[in-house]
C-alpha cells in the first residue's frame, strides 16, 4: 500500500515540475512581446 502511494507521489512531482517548466516557457513567450512593444512604442 505504501509503495503505491510513493509511486503516485513521484509521478505527481514529475507532472508538477513539467507544469512549472511549461509555465516558465509561457511567461517568457508572453513577456518578450510585451517588452518589445514597450521598447518600440
TrEMBL record:
<keyword id="KW-1133">Transmembrane helix</keyword>
<protein>
    <submittedName>
        <fullName>Uncharacterized protein</fullName>
    </submittedName>
</protein>
<keyword id="KW-0472">Membrane</keyword>
<keyword id="KW-0812">Transmembrane</keyword>
<feature type="transmembrane region" description="Helical">
    <location>
        <begin position="20"/>
        <end position="40"/>
    </location>
</feature>
